[in-house]
Amino acid sequence: MSPVGQDLKRERELRSISLEEIAEVTKINPRFLRELEENNLDLLPGEFFIRGIIREYAKYLGLDEQAMLNTYLESRKSVEQEGTAIKDGYTGLPKNISSAIRIAALGAFLIAVLFGLFFIFGKREVPSPPPKPKSQPPITKKAITPPPETQQELDEKEKVVELNLEFIFQQDTWIQILADGEKVYSGIRLSGGRYEVSAKREIIIDLGNAGGLSYSINGMKGIPFGRPGAVEKGITITIDNYEDFLEKSENPDEIQPNRESIDEGVPGTGEDLE
Q: Within its chain, how far is the Cα of 30 from the centroid?
């Protein structure tokens, strides 16, 4: 396993800093910090989330963030190479055992085939012919033509030339946003904060806590991205598919744009975690 967690723990203890103090400033769950120190990386949400925790932890202790991240990547690569070497060195079962297994498998297959044939043909009953249906007069189907779109509906479609998303954070949430292929934000937003982003073609979102926020698209309420604590990557909203992310409502007047100001004071890492 990666030694980076042990290194971070040693540096923290040398500075007499508690996990709770780091968690309070970085807004990272102290359980995640503890799992990192114990090298229980399989209990953390995902690879890019692990890198983000390492960066924030090292940054708080005043260490070289990239050096600690390189240590983690090198140790992970070493573990993967050891696993490949073990797999390549596997020679299989002895020839006599392998032959016996193949013979036993073949015998079991033949027995299964015989039982299947017995149940299919041994207990087969000849079905009686179905009654002849009475002749029915042909039914002429009338083509249903959908009503043409009204001029108002056409005007509404032509108005959508830009995507405007507003995020409202109910919980501390790591988020990364790409607008028209350009990264505009990457970091942790705190509970109670807001963030707005606009794009001409598409917006791609990565989340470390999919259920920790709500959002609206062009003033219309969106459906949840996922459950709290779930990691969701590559959420792509475009001019063509944005309606798939909207909450359906029979009364459009119930959905009102939220024009409150954005809390730009919420700190974030500003780092690319991929």
A: 22
